[in-house]
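lol ok so funny story. i was supposed to be doing the assay writeup but got distracted and ended up predicting the structure for this chain instead. priorities right. anyway since i did it might as well share w the group, maybe its usefull for someone
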Amino acid sequence: MQTPMRAPAELKLDAFVRQYRSMAPLRLGLPLMLSVMVATVTPLPFAAGFGLLHMALYLVFFWAVEVAARGRGGAPRALRRLTVRTGLITFMITLHACWMALAVRDMSTEAYIRTEAALVVIGVLMFTGTQTHMSRIGYLAGIAPALVSLMWISVGRTNQTPNLHLMAVVGLFLVSVIAVTWRQQETSLALRITRLELEDKNTALTDMVTRAEAAQATAEAANRAKSDFLAMTSHEIRTPLNAVLGLAEALNRSRLSAGQKDMARGVVDAGALLKRLLDAMLDIGRIEAGKMTLSAGPFDLRRAAETVVRIWTPRAEEQGVTLALDLSGVPAGCGLIADGGKVEQVLINLISNALKFSPRGGVVTVRVAARPETGGAGLTVRAEVLDQGPGVTPADRARIFSVFEQTAEGRRRGGAGLGLAICAGNLALMDGTIEVGEAPGGGAAFRIAFTAPACRLTETAPLDIEAGGLDEANPLRVLAAEDNAGNRHVLEALLGPLPVTLTLVENGALAVEAMAAGGFDMVLMDANMPVMDGLTALRRIREMDARTPVWMLTANVFDEDVARYIAAGADGVVRKPIALDELFSALAEAAERARPDLEDAVAA
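and the output, tada:
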Protein backbone atom coordinates (compact mmCIF):
# COMPACT_ATOMS: atom_id res chain seq x y z
CA MET A 1 0.00 0.00 0.00
CA GLN A 2 1.32 3.44 -0.91
CA THR A 3 2.28 5.76 1.98
CA PRO A 4 -0.29 8.63 2.01
CA MET A 5 0.88 12.26 1.98
CA ARG A 6 0.03 14.19 5.16
CA ALA A 7 -2.36 17.13 5.28
CA PRO A 8 -0.97 20.69 5.87
CA ALA A 9 -2.27 20.71 9.47
CA GLU A 10 -0.46 17.43 10.21
CA LEU A 11 2.76 18.76 8.70
CA LYS A 12 2.56 22.01 10.68
CA LEU A 13 1.82 20.23 13.95
CA ASP A 14 4.68 17.80 13.42
CA ALA A 15 7.02 20.70 12.55
CA PHE A 16 6.33 22.53 15.81
CA VAL A 17 6.42 19.40 17.97
CA ARG A 18 9.83 18.45 16.56
CA GLN A 19 11.16 21.98 16.98
CA TYR A 20 9.99 22.27 20.57
CA ARG A 21 11.42 18.87 21.46
CA SER A 22 14.80 19.86 20.01
CA MET A 23 14.77 23.01 22.20
CA ALA A 24 13.99 21.11 25.40
CA PRO A 25 17.58 20.77 26.76
CA LEU A 26 18.35 24.48 26.30
CA ARG A 27 15.03 25.69 27.71
CA LEU A 28 15.22 23.44 30.76
CA GLY A 29 18.81 24.54 31.38
CA LEU A 30 17.94 28.26 31.26
CA PRO A 31 16.13 28.32 34.68
CA LEU A 32 19.18 26.77 36.30
CA MET A 33 21.55 29.38 34.83
CA LEU A 34 19.25 32.26 35.80
CA SER A 35 18.87 30.88 39.34
CA VAL A 36 22.66 30.73 39.81
CA MET A 37 23.00 34.30 38.54
CA VAL A 38 20.19 35.57 40.80
CA ALA A 39 21.73 33.79 43.79
CA THR A 40 24.88 35.92 43.49
CA VAL A 41 22.99 39.16 44.11
CA THR A 42 19.89 38.13 46.09
CA PRO A 43 19.09 35.94 49.06
CA LEU A 44 19.15 32.22 48.39
CA PRO A 45 15.41 31.61 49.12
CA PHE A 46 14.48 34.22 46.49
CA ALA A 47 16.79 32.66 43.91
CA ALA A 48 15.57 29.13 44.67
CA GLY A 49 11.91 30.16 44.48
CA PHE A 50 12.51 31.88 41.16
CA GLY A 51 14.29 28.82 39.73
CA LEU A 52 11.61 26.35 40.81
CA LEU A 53 8.75 28.43 39.44
CA HIS A 54 10.59 29.07 36.19
CA MET A 55 11.33 25.33 35.83
CA ALA A 56 7.68 24.51 36.51
CA LEU A 57 6.54 26.85 33.73
CA TYR A 58 8.87 25.16 31.25
CA LEU A 59 7.66 21.71 32.31
CA VAL A 60 4.07 22.81 31.71
CA PHE A 61 5.15 24.10 28.29
CA PHE A 62 6.57 20.74 27.24
CA TRP A 63 3.63 18.89 28.75
CA ALA A 64 1.40 20.86 26.36
CA VAL A 65 3.70 19.89 23.48
CA GLU A 66 3.51 16.18 24.24
CA VAL A 67 -0.27 16.30 24.63
CA ALA A 68 -0.55 17.93 21.23
CA ALA A 69 1.81 15.35 19.70
CA ARG A 70 -0.73 12.62 20.43
CA GLY A 71 -3.10 14.44 18.07
CA ARG A 72 -6.30 13.48 19.87
CA GLY A 73 -9.32 14.89 18.10
CA GLY A 74 -7.40 15.35 14.88
CA ALA A 75 -4.44 17.44 13.80
CA PRO A 76 -6.33 20.74 13.26
CA ARG A 77 -7.79 20.68 16.77
CA ALA A 78 -4.49 19.67 18.37
CA LEU A 79 -2.75 22.45 16.42
CA ARG A 80 -5.18 25.08 17.74
CA ARG A 81 -4.79 23.90 21.33
CA LEU A 82 -1.01 23.92 21.09
CA THR A 83 -1.01 27.42 19.56
CA VAL A 84 -3.02 28.87 22.43
CA ARG A 85 -1.19 27.02 25.19
CA THR A 86 2.35 27.69 23.99
CA GLY A 87 1.57 31.38 23.44
CA LEU A 88 0.13 31.78 26.93
CA ILE A 89 2.88 29.82 28.67
CA THR A 90 5.61 31.67 26.76
CA PHE A 91 4.08 34.98 27.90
CA MET A 92 4.15 33.78 31.53
CA ILE A 93 7.75 32.54 31.25
CA THR A 94 8.97 35.83 29.75
CA LEU A 95 6.96 37.91 32.24
CA HIS A 96 8.41 35.92 35.12
CA ALA A 97 12.00 36.37 33.90
CA CYS A 98 11.54 40.11 33.36
CA TRP A 99 9.90 40.51 36.77
CA MET A 100 12.92 38.81 38.31
CA ALA A 101 15.29 41.22 36.52
CA LEU A 102 13.35 44.30 37.69
CA ALA A 103 13.08 42.90 41.22
CA VAL A 104 16.83 42.34 41.40
CA ARG A 105 17.42 45.90 40.17
CA ASP A 106 15.18 47.29 42.91
CA MET A 107 16.84 45.17 45.63
CA SER A 108 20.21 46.85 45.19
CA THR A 109 21.49 50.41 45.02
CA GLU A 110 24.59 49.39 43.09
CA ALA A 111 24.82 51.04 39.67
CA TYR A 112 26.14 47.90 37.95
CA ILE A 113 23.02 45.97 38.98
CA ARG A 114 20.98 48.17 36.66
CA THR A 115 23.27 47.20 33.81
CA GLU A 116 23.06 43.49 34.68
CA ALA A 117 19.25 43.67 34.85
CA ALA A 118 19.18 45.31 31.42
CA LEU A 119 21.44 42.61 30.02
CA VAL A 120 19.24 39.89 31.47
CA VAL A 121 16.16 41.41 29.87
CA ILE A 122 18.01 41.78 26.56
CA GLY A 123 18.99 38.12 26.79
CA VAL A 124 15.37 37.13 27.48
CA LEU A 125 14.24 39.27 24.55
CA MET A 126 16.72 37.70 22.14
CA PHE A 127 16.06 34.18 23.38
CA THR A 128 12.30 34.55 23.13
CA GLY A 129 12.30 36.48 19.87
CA THR A 130 14.42 33.95 18.02
CA GLN A 131 12.58 30.89 19.28
CA THR A 132 9.75 29.18 17.45
CA HIS A 133 6.29 30.66 17.83
CA MET A 134 3.16 29.15 16.38
CA SER A 135 1.43 32.45 15.65
CA ARG A 136 2.10 36.17 15.41
CA ILE A 137 0.08 36.73 18.58
CA GLY A 138 2.17 34.17 20.43
CA TYR A 139 5.33 35.88 19.19
CA LEU A 140 4.17 39.31 20.37
CA ALA A 141 3.04 37.87 23.72
CA GLY A 142 6.47 36.31 24.17
CA ILE A 143 8.49 39.50 23.54
CA ALA A 144 6.10 42.10 25.01
CA PRO A 145 7.24 41.73 28.68
CA ALA A 146 10.87 42.09 27.62
CA LEU A 147 10.13 45.17 25.50
CA VAL A 148 8.27 46.91 28.35
CA SER A 149 10.89 45.92 30.92
CA LEU A 150 13.78 47.18 28.82
CA MET A 151 12.06 50.53 28.23
CA TRP A 152 11.32 50.78 31.96
CA ILE A 153 14.96 50.10 32.84
CA SER A 154 16.12 52.75 30.35
CA VAL A 155 13.91 55.37 32.03
CA GLY A 156 15.70 54.85 35.34
CA ARG A 157 14.50 55.21 38.89
CA THR A 158 11.84 57.74 39.90
CA ASN A 159 14.41 60.00 41.56
CA GLN A 160 16.61 60.07 38.49
CA THR A 161 16.44 62.31 35.46
CA PRO A 162 15.49 60.26 32.32
CA ASN A 163 18.37 59.73 29.90
CA LEU A 164 16.73 60.60 26.58
CA HIS A 165 19.77 59.54 24.54
CA LEU A 166 19.76 56.12 26.21
CA MET A 167 16.03 55.78 25.66
CA ALA A 168 16.47 56.56 21.95
CA VAL A 169 19.24 53.96 21.60
CA VAL A 170 17.17 51.34 23.41
CA GLY A 171 14.16 52.13 21.22
CA LEU A 172 16.27 51.73 18.05
CA PHE A 173 17.61 48.44 19.39
CA LEU A 174 14.12 47.16 20.10
CA VAL A 175 12.89 48.08 16.63
CA SER A 176 15.87 46.29 15.07
CA VAL A 177 15.28 43.15 17.13
CA ILE A 178 11.58 43.07 16.22
CA ALA A 179 12.31 43.61 12.52
CA VAL A 180 14.84 40.78 12.42
CA THR A 181 12.99 38.24 14.53
CA TRP A 182 9.61 38.93 12.90
CA ARG A 183 10.99 37.95 9.51
CA GLN A 184 12.97 35.07 11.02
CA GLN A 185 9.77 33.56 12.42
CA GLU A 186 8.16 33.42 8.97
CA THR A 187 11.27 31.98 7.30
CA SER A 188 11.84 29.35 9.99
CA LEU A 189 8.26 28.12 9.79
CA ALA A 190 8.41 27.83 5.99
CA LEU A 191 11.72 25.97 6.14
CA ARG A 192 10.47 23.55 8.77
CA ILE A 193 7.30 22.73 6.84
CA THR A 194 9.25 22.40 3.58
CA ARG A 195 11.67 20.02 5.23
CA LEU A 196 8.81 17.88 6.51
CA GLU A 197 7.17 17.89 3.08
CA LEU A 198 10.46 16.68 1.60
CA GLU A 199 10.69 14.00 4.26
CA ASP A 200 7.16 12.87 3.41
CA LYS A 201 7.94 12.80 -0.29
CA ASN A 202 11.18 10.94 0.36
CA THR A 203 9.28 8.40 2.47
CA ALA A 204 6.70 8.00 -0.28
CA LEU A 205 9.45 7.67 -2.88
CA THR A 206 11.27 5.10 -0.76
CA ASP A 207 8.01 3.21 -0.37
CA MET A 208 7.44 3.31 -4.13
CA VAL A 209 10.98 2.04 -4.77
CA THR A 210 10.49 -0.77 -2.25
CA ARG A 211 7.19 -1.77 -3.84
CA ALA A 212 8.75 -1.54 -7.32
CA GLU A 213 11.63 -3.78 -6.25
CA ALA A 214 9.18 -6.26 -4.76
CA ALA A 215 7.11 -6.16 -7.95
CA GLN A 216 10.26 -6.65 -10.02
CA ALA A 217 11.27 -9.63 -7.90
CA THR A 218 7.79 -11.08 -8.30
CA ALA A 219 7.89 -10.48 -12.06
CA GLU A 220 11.33 -12.08 -12.33
CA ALA A 221 10.13 -15.09 -10.37
CA ALA A 222 7.06 -15.33 -12.61
CA ASN A 223 9.27 -14.99 -15.68
CA ARG A 224 11.55 -17.77 -14.43
CA ALA A 225 8.50 -19.93 -13.74
CA LYS A 226 7.21 -19.17 -17.23
CA SER A 227 10.58 -20.07 -18.76
CA ASP A 228 10.68 -23.30 -16.78
CA PHE A 229 7.13 -24.07 -17.87
CA LEU A 230 7.97 -23.37 -21.52
CA ALA A 231 11.04 -25.55 -21.31
CA MET A 232 9.09 -28.41 -19.78
CA THR A 233 6.20 -27.96 -22.22
CA SER A 234 8.58 -27.78 -25.15
CA HIS A 235 10.25 -31.03 -24.18
CA GLU A 236 7.01 -32.88 -23.43
CA ILE A 237 5.38 -31.78 -26.71
CA ARG A 238 8.42 -32.27 -28.90
CA THR A 239 8.94 -35.85 -27.81
CA PRO A 240 5.61 -37.22 -29.14
CA LEU A 241 5.68 -34.70 -31.99
CA ASN A 242 9.02 -36.14 -33.04
CA ALA A 243 7.37 -39.55 -33.40
CA VAL A 244 4.44 -38.09 -35.35
CA LEU A 245 6.59 -36.15 -37.80
CA GLY A 246 9.36 -38.71 -38.07
CA LEU A 247 7.09 -41.64 -38.80
CA ALA A 248 4.93 -39.55 -41.14
CA GLU A 249 8.04 -38.44 -43.02
CA ALA A 250 9.30 -42.01 -43.28
CA LEU A 251 5.86 -43.13 -44.46
CA ASN A 252 5.76 -40.33 -47.02
CA ARG A 253 9.09 -41.51 -48.47
CA SER A 254 7.85 -45.06 -48.89
CA ARG A 255 5.82 -46.53 -51.74
CA LEU A 256 2.29 -45.26 -51.29
CA SER A 257 -0.69 -44.61 -53.48
CA ALA A 258 -1.47 -41.02 -54.41
CA GLY A 259 -4.22 -40.82 -51.81
CA GLN A 260 -2.03 -42.30 -49.12
CA LYS A 261 0.75 -39.84 -49.96
CA ASP A 262 -1.70 -36.95 -49.62
CA MET A 263 -2.74 -38.18 -46.19
CA ALA A 264 0.88 -38.67 -45.08
CA ARG A 265 1.74 -35.22 -46.40
CA GLY A 266 -1.21 -33.82 -44.46
CA VAL A 267 0.12 -35.33 -41.24
CA VAL A 268 3.57 -33.85 -41.92
CA ASP A 269 2.10 -30.42 -42.69
CA ALA A 270 -0.11 -30.43 -39.59
CA GLY A 271 2.81 -31.54 -37.42
CA ALA A 272 5.02 -28.86 -38.96
CA LEU A 273 2.35 -26.27 -38.16
CA LEU A 274 2.24 -27.43 -34.56
CA LYS A 275 6.03 -27.27 -34.42
CA ARG A 276 6.02 -23.70 -35.73
CA LEU A 277 3.48 -22.73 -33.06
CA LEU A 278 5.68 -24.29 -30.39
CA ASP A 279 8.74 -22.52 -31.77
CA ALA A 280 6.78 -19.26 -31.74
CA MET A 281 5.96 -19.67 -28.06
CA LEU A 282 9.61 -20.28 -27.26
CA ASP A 283 10.68 -17.28 -29.35
CA ILE A 284 8.21 -15.07 -27.50
CA GLY A 285 9.68 -16.27 -24.22
CA ARG A 286 13.18 -15.41 -25.41
CA ILE A 287 12.12 -12.00 -26.71
CA GLU A 288 10.38 -11.06 -23.45
CA ALA A 289 13.35 -12.27 -21.40
CA GLY A 290 15.77 -10.32 -23.59
CA LYS A 291 17.60 -13.53 -24.51
CA MET A 292 16.89 -13.55 -28.22
CA THR A 293 20.10 -13.04 -30.19
CA LEU A 294 21.04 -12.71 -33.83
CA SER A 295 22.95 -15.38 -35.72
CA ALA A 296 24.27 -13.42 -38.68
CA GLY A 297 25.84 -15.02 -41.72
CA PRO A 298 25.82 -14.87 -45.52
CA PHE A 299 22.24 -14.80 -46.70
CA ASP A 300 20.76 -14.90 -50.21
CA LEU A 301 17.74 -12.60 -50.07
CA ARG A 302 16.37 -13.53 -53.50
CA ARG A 303 16.67 -17.29 -52.93
CA ALA A 304 15.10 -17.01 -49.48
CA ALA A 305 12.06 -15.12 -50.79
CA GLU A 306 11.64 -17.57 -53.67
CA THR A 307 11.89 -20.55 -51.31
CA VAL A 308 9.35 -19.19 -48.84
CA VAL A 309 6.84 -18.35 -51.58
CA ARG A 310 7.36 -21.72 -53.27
CA ILE A 311 6.67 -23.55 -50.00
CA TRP A 312 3.48 -21.57 -49.36
CA THR A 313 2.17 -21.69 -52.93
CA PRO A 314 0.46 -25.11 -52.54
CA ARG A 315 -1.32 -23.86 -49.41
CA ALA A 316 -2.44 -20.77 -51.29
CA GLU A 317 -3.76 -22.88 -54.18
CA GLU A 318 -5.72 -25.04 -51.74
CA GLN A 319 -7.43 -21.88 -50.45
CA GLY A 320 -8.06 -20.55 -53.96
CA VAL A 321 -5.68 -17.63 -53.45
CA THR A 322 -2.99 -16.51 -55.88
CA LEU A 323 0.41 -15.97 -54.23
CA ALA A 324 2.51 -13.58 -56.35
CA LEU A 325 6.17 -12.66 -55.83
CA ASP A 326 7.76 -9.47 -57.13
CA LEU A 327 11.57 -9.46 -56.95
CA SER A 328 12.17 -6.76 -59.54
CA GLY A 329 13.79 -4.60 -56.90
CA VAL A 330 16.31 -7.28 -55.83
CA PRO A 331 19.51 -7.51 -57.89
CA ALA A 332 20.85 -10.93 -58.84
CA GLY A 333 23.18 -12.44 -56.26
CA CYS A 334 21.95 -10.13 -53.51
CA GLY A 335 23.99 -11.29 -50.54
CA LEU A 336 23.57 -9.96 -47.01
CA ILE A 337 25.25 -10.57 -43.67
CA ALA A 338 22.07 -11.13 -41.70
CA ASP A 339 20.16 -13.66 -39.61
CA GLY A 340 18.52 -15.47 -42.50
CA GLY A 341 16.38 -17.61 -40.22
CA LYS A 342 14.73 -14.58 -38.65
CA VAL A 343 14.18 -12.88 -42.01
CA GLU A 344 12.55 -16.04 -43.35
CA GLN A 345 10.47 -16.35 -40.18
CA VAL A 346 9.15 -12.81 -40.65
CA LEU A 347 8.20 -13.50 -44.28
CA ILE A 348 6.56 -16.81 -43.35
CA ASN A 349 4.46 -15.22 -40.61
CA LEU A 350 3.35 -12.34 -42.82
CA ILE A 351 2.47 -14.64 -45.74
CA SER A 352 0.64 -17.03 -43.42
CA ASN A 353 -1.44 -14.14 -42.04
CA ALA A 354 -2.17 -12.80 -45.53
CA LEU A 355 -3.40 -16.19 -46.74
CA LYS A 356 -5.53 -16.61 -43.64
CA PHE A 357 -7.44 -13.37 -44.25
CA SER A 358 -7.59 -13.32 -48.05
CA PRO A 359 -10.86 -14.48 -49.62
CA ARG A 360 -11.06 -17.23 -52.24
CA GLY A 361 -10.14 -15.74 -55.60
CA GLY A 362 -8.01 -13.06 -53.95
CA VAL A 363 -4.34 -12.25 -54.52
CA VAL A 364 -1.52 -12.02 -51.97
CA THR A 365 1.45 -10.07 -53.29
CA VAL A 366 4.94 -10.34 -51.80
CA ARG A 367 7.19 -7.52 -52.96
CA VAL A 368 10.88 -7.37 -51.98
CA ALA A 369 13.47 -4.71 -52.84
CA ALA A 370 17.06 -4.01 -51.85
CA ARG A 371 18.86 -0.73 -52.42
CA PRO A 372 22.35 0.47 -51.47
CA GLU A 373 22.34 2.23 -48.12
CA THR A 374 22.64 6.00 -48.37
CA GLY A 375 26.20 6.92 -47.45
CA GLY A 376 27.08 3.39 -46.36
CA ALA A 377 28.32 0.02 -47.60
CA GLY A 378 25.21 -1.94 -46.68
CA LEU A 379 21.87 -2.66 -48.31
CA THR A 380 18.50 -1.38 -47.15
CA VAL A 381 15.91 -4.13 -47.57
CA ARG A 382 12.25 -3.28 -47.86
CA ALA A 383 9.52 -5.89 -48.19
CA GLU A 384 5.76 -5.74 -48.15
CA VAL A 385 3.01 -8.32 -48.09
CA LEU A 386 -0.31 -7.14 -49.50
CA ASP A 387 -3.58 -9.03 -49.07
CA GLN A 388 -7.20 -8.45 -50.02
CA GLY A 389 -8.72 -9.25 -46.64
CA PRO A 390 -10.70 -7.04 -44.27
CA GLY A 391 -7.63 -4.98 -43.37
CA VAL A 392 -6.58 -3.63 -39.98
CA THR A 393 -8.37 -0.67 -38.42
CA PRO A 394 -6.25 2.32 -37.28
CA ALA A 395 -7.16 1.54 -33.67
CA ASP A 396 -5.68 -1.98 -33.99
CA ARG A 397 -2.53 -1.12 -35.92
CA ALA A 398 -0.32 -0.37 -32.91
CA ARG A 399 -1.39 -3.16 -30.57
CA ILE A 400 -1.35 -6.16 -32.94
CA PHE A 401 2.44 -6.30 -32.69
CA SER A 402 2.19 -7.09 -28.95
CA VAL A 403 2.05 -10.63 -27.58
CA PHE A 404 -1.41 -12.25 -27.71
CA GLU A 405 -2.94 -9.11 -29.20
CA GLN A 406 -4.99 -9.54 -32.36
CA THR A 407 -7.98 -8.17 -34.17
CA ALA A 408 -11.48 -9.53 -33.62
CA GLU A 409 -11.33 -11.11 -37.10
CA GLY A 410 -8.00 -12.75 -36.26
CA ARG A 411 -9.44 -14.20 -33.07
CA ARG A 412 -12.45 -15.49 -35.00
CA ARG A 413 -10.16 -17.25 -37.47
CA GLY A 414 -8.21 -18.98 -34.71
CA GLY A 415 -5.05 -16.87 -34.50
CA ALA A 416 -2.77 -17.19 -31.48
CA GLY A 417 -1.54 -13.59 -31.45
CA LEU A 418 2.12 -14.62 -31.59
CA GLY A 419 3.26 -14.29 -35.20
CA LEU A 420 3.30 -10.49 -35.49
CA ALA A 421 4.89 -10.12 -32.05
CA ILE A 422 7.72 -12.40 -33.20
CA CYS A 423 8.09 -10.37 -36.41
CA ALA A 424 8.35 -7.16 -34.36
CA GLY A 425 10.88 -8.76 -31.98
CA ASN A 426 13.04 -10.09 -34.82
CA LEU A 427 13.11 -6.74 -36.61
CA ALA A 428 13.88 -4.90 -33.37
CA LEU A 429 16.96 -7.11 -32.98
CA MET A 430 18.00 -6.15 -36.51
CA ASP A 431 17.32 -2.42 -35.83
CA GLY A 432 14.54 -2.66 -38.39
CA THR A 433 10.92 -1.60 -38.48
CA ILE A 434 7.53 -3.15 -39.17
CA GLU A 435 4.25 -1.38 -39.79
CA VAL A 436 0.83 -2.03 -41.20
CA GLY A 437 -1.28 0.16 -43.43
CA GLU A 438 -3.98 -0.15 -46.05
CA ALA A 439 -3.24 -1.95 -49.30
CA PRO A 440 -4.28 -0.43 -52.63
CA GLY A 441 -7.84 -1.54 -53.30
CA GLY A 442 -8.41 -2.58 -49.68
CA GLY A 443 -6.85 -5.14 -47.40
CA ALA A 444 -3.77 -4.96 -45.21
CA ALA A 445 -0.27 -3.96 -46.25
CA PHE A 446 2.48 -5.13 -43.89
CA ARG A 447 5.81 -3.42 -44.54
CA ILE A 448 9.21 -4.22 -43.08
CA ALA A 449 12.60 -2.56 -43.48
CA PHE A 450 16.10 -3.25 -42.20
CA THR A 451 19.71 -2.57 -43.18
CA ALA A 452 22.48 -5.16 -43.35
CA PRO A 453 26.03 -5.33 -44.73
CA ALA A 454 26.32 -6.61 -48.28
CA CYS A 455 28.41 -9.67 -49.12
CA ARG A 456 29.38 -11.82 -52.11
CA LEU A 457 27.55 -15.15 -52.28
CA THR A 458 29.28 -18.47 -52.97
CA GLU A 459 27.53 -21.51 -54.35
CA THR A 460 27.13 -24.44 -51.94
CA ALA A 461 26.66 -27.97 -53.14
CA PRO A 462 23.38 -29.64 -52.11
CA LEU A 463 23.56 -32.14 -49.31
CA ASP A 464 24.40 -35.65 -50.50
CA ILE A 465 24.65 -38.40 -47.94
CA GLU A 466 26.63 -40.73 -50.16
CA ALA A 467 29.17 -37.96 -50.82
CA GLY A 468 30.23 -38.35 -47.23
CA GLY A 469 31.41 -41.92 -47.84
CA LEU A 470 28.24 -43.84 -47.01
CA ASP A 471 27.72 -46.94 -49.08
CA GLU A 472 26.46 -50.47 -48.63
CA ALA A 473 29.97 -51.91 -48.28
CA ASN A 474 30.99 -49.54 -45.47
CA PRO A 475 27.86 -48.55 -43.52
CA LEU A 476 28.14 -45.83 -40.90
CA ARG A 477 28.07 -47.34 -37.42
CA VAL A 478 25.72 -45.24 -35.29
CA LEU A 479 24.99 -45.64 -31.58
CA ALA A 480 21.74 -43.96 -30.51
CA ALA A 481 20.72 -43.54 -26.85
CA GLU A 482 16.98 -42.91 -26.61
CA ASP A 483 14.63 -43.95 -23.79
CA ASN A 484 11.36 -43.29 -25.66
CA ALA A 485 10.18 -46.29 -27.68
CA GLY A 486 8.37 -44.12 -30.20
CA ASN A 487 11.51 -42.09 -30.88
CA ARG A 488 13.58 -45.26 -31.28
CA HIS A 489 11.04 -46.38 -33.87
CA VAL A 490 11.46 -43.01 -35.65
CA LEU A 491 15.23 -43.47 -35.85
CA GLU A 492 14.81 -46.96 -37.24
CA ALA A 493 12.34 -45.70 -39.84
CA LEU A 494 14.47 -42.74 -40.91
CA LEU A 495 17.86 -44.47 -40.91
CA GLY A 496 16.68 -47.90 -42.07
CA PRO A 497 16.82 -47.08 -45.81
CA LEU A 498 20.33 -45.59 -45.46
CA PRO A 499 23.68 -47.43 -45.33
CA VAL A 500 23.74 -47.12 -41.55
CA THR A 501 24.25 -49.80 -38.89
CA LEU A 502 22.10 -48.57 -36.01
CA THR A 503 22.53 -49.72 -32.42
CA LEU A 504 19.85 -48.53 -29.98
CA VAL A 505 20.21 -48.30 -26.18
CA GLU A 506 17.71 -46.99 -23.65
CA ASN A 507 19.81 -44.80 -21.32
CA GLY A 508 23.14 -43.03 -20.91
CA ALA A 509 24.73 -45.76 -18.81
CA LEU A 510 24.22 -48.35 -21.56
CA ALA A 511 25.61 -45.85 -24.09
CA VAL A 512 28.80 -45.46 -22.03
CA GLU A 513 29.17 -49.25 -21.81
CA ALA A 514 28.67 -49.61 -25.57
CA MET A 515 31.24 -46.91 -26.31
CA ALA A 516 33.73 -48.59 -23.98
CA ALA A 517 33.45 -51.69 -26.17
CA GLY A 518 34.18 -49.53 -29.25
CA GLY A 519 33.19 -49.89 -32.88
CA PHE A 520 31.07 -46.77 -33.50
CA ASP A 521 31.56 -43.89 -35.91
CA MET A 522 28.94 -41.62 -34.38
CA VAL A 523 26.72 -41.23 -31.29
CA LEU A 524 23.21 -39.74 -31.17
CA MET A 525 22.49 -38.92 -27.51
CA ASP A 526 19.14 -37.98 -26.00
CA ALA A 527 19.33 -35.53 -23.08
CA ASN A 528 16.65 -36.68 -20.61
CA MET A 529 16.95 -40.38 -19.83
CA PRO A 530 16.63 -42.58 -16.74
CA VAL A 531 19.61 -44.19 -14.96
CA MET A 532 22.05 -41.72 -16.53
CA ASP A 533 21.11 -38.55 -18.40
CA GLY A 534 22.63 -37.63 -21.74
CA LEU A 535 24.84 -34.80 -20.49
CA THR A 536 26.51 -37.05 -17.87
CA ALA A 537 26.93 -39.80 -20.46
CA LEU A 538 28.49 -37.29 -22.85
CA ARG A 539 31.08 -36.27 -20.26
CA ARG A 540 31.90 -39.93 -19.49
CA ILE A 541 32.34 -40.69 -23.20
CA ARG A 542 34.61 -37.68 -23.65
CA GLU A 543 36.82 -38.90 -20.82
CA MET A 544 37.62 -42.06 -22.78
CA ASP A 545 37.05 -40.93 -26.39
CA ALA A 546 37.69 -37.41 -27.59
CA ARG A 547 37.39 -38.11 -31.30
CA THR A 548 34.12 -39.92 -32.07
CA PRO A 549 31.46 -37.31 -32.94
CA VAL A 550 28.61 -37.10 -30.45
CA TRP A 551 25.46 -35.26 -31.45
CA MET A 552 22.79 -34.49 -28.91
CA LEU A 553 19.35 -35.58 -30.13
CA THR A 554 17.05 -33.63 -27.84
CA ALA A 555 13.84 -31.71 -27.34
CA ASN A 556 15.66 -29.30 -25.01
CA VAL A 557 16.28 -26.61 -27.60
CA PHE A 558 16.79 -23.44 -25.57
CA ASP A 559 19.99 -21.60 -26.44
CA GLU A 560 21.40 -22.13 -22.94
CA ASP A 561 20.79 -25.89 -23.28
CA VAL A 562 22.62 -26.03 -26.60
CA ALA A 563 25.52 -24.01 -25.19
CA ARG A 564 25.75 -26.41 -22.23
CA TYR A 565 25.94 -29.44 -24.53
CA ILE A 566 28.62 -27.89 -26.72
CA ALA A 567 30.65 -26.90 -23.66
CA ALA A 568 30.50 -30.50 -22.42
CA GLY A 569 32.00 -31.78 -25.69
CA ALA A 570 29.08 -32.33 -28.07
CA ASP A 571 29.81 -31.82 -31.77
CA GLY A 572 26.35 -30.43 -32.42
CA VAL A 573 22.64 -30.69 -31.70
CA VAL A 574 19.86 -32.28 -33.75
CA ARG A 575 16.60 -30.83 -32.49
CA LYS A 576 13.39 -32.77 -32.01
CA PRO A 577 11.15 -33.06 -33.92
CA ILE A 578 13.95 -34.26 -36.17
CA ALA A 579 14.59 -32.13 -39.25
CA LEU A 580 15.97 -34.41 -41.95
CA ASP A 581 18.45 -31.81 -43.19
CA GLU A 582 19.96 -31.51 -39.68
CA LEU A 583 20.12 -35.28 -39.23
CA PHE A 584 21.55 -35.98 -42.67
CA SER A 585 24.10 -33.18 -42.29
CA ALA A 586 25.31 -34.73 -39.01
CA LEU A 587 25.55 -38.16 -40.66
CA ALA A 588 27.52 -36.76 -43.60
CA GLU A 589 29.95 -35.00 -41.26
CA ALA A 590 30.44 -38.19 -39.25
CA ALA A 591 31.01 -40.20 -42.43
CA GLU A 592 33.65 -37.71 -43.58
CA ARG A 593 35.47 -37.98 -40.26
CA ALA A 594 35.24 -41.79 -40.32
CA ARG A 595 36.75 -42.06 -43.84
CA PRO A 596 40.43 -41.94 -42.70
CA ASP A 597 39.76 -44.89 -40.39
CA LEU A 598 38.30 -46.85 -43.30
CA GLU A 599 41.23 -46.01 -45.52
CA ASP A 600 43.69 -47.03 -42.78
CA ALA A 601 41.84 -50.32 -42.31
CA VAL A 602 42.02 -51.10 -46.06
CA ALA A 603 45.72 -50.23 -46.19
CA ALA A 604 46.47 -52.52 -43.27
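Confidence is low (pLDDT under 50) at residues 461-468, 598-604. Residues 47 and 566 are 94 Å apart (CA to CA).
back to the writeup now i swear
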